[in-house]
Amino acid sequence: MVLELGRKRFAEALKPFVKRVPLKPNTLSILAFLLTVGSAVCLLFAPSSNDVLILAGAVLISISGFLDALDGEVARAKGLASKKGDFTDHVLDRYADVVILMGMLLLVEPLYLLFAIEGVLLTSYMGTQAQALGLGRLYSGIMGRADRLVIIILILIFEFVFLPGYRILKWGVIAIAILSNGTAIERAIVVYKKLED
Fold first, then answer.
1. Is 68 an active-site residue?
2. Structure confidence by residue, pLDDT tens digits, 109-163
3. Which residue, 111, 100, 113, 97, is CA-closest to 156?
4. Which pTM was predicted?
5. Annotated catalytic residue: which of 86, 89, 93, 97?
6. The domain over range 4-196 is classified in CATH as 3.40.1280.10
């Protein structure tokens, strides 16, 4: 939610740039997803090879996040926005969310990852379910997708620089799990209140 508030400013800052992007929005979405898969592979192999892969994972997630933010802006700027494109973007985003966390399978206890994945998926579900009920897309709550990606990038960088041993990563995943599930519950309450009104 913190970074979602800056979405309009970010979109304005991108306007001069988006019209020059030679790629189609769906291509950007697919590239963003593939970079996410690459980041997960880096994280999977980090324990058995080199912690530099932790940093590589953070870099790939950063680029992926930028491309993911760019695809919608390119679609709107070039008049290519469509329901199919929006659906494709959301599907790839959900897979990307799970893939990133699954990439940490050898770094963090599976139970924490499972709890985090549950929160991530339910947060998104509550937002889209509100839209399906005619209440508009719901972005409220403390842990939106942009916030979550920034936290993951930061904990990976801190893990690489300061405290190897995956302790920061573990507590970062726990924080994401708690805040994501809290956000899902908060969104559910907002939907109930709107339905009552």
1. no
2. 999 999 999 999 999 999 889 888 888 888 888 898 888 999 999 999 988 887 6
3. 100
4. 0.88
5. 93
6. no
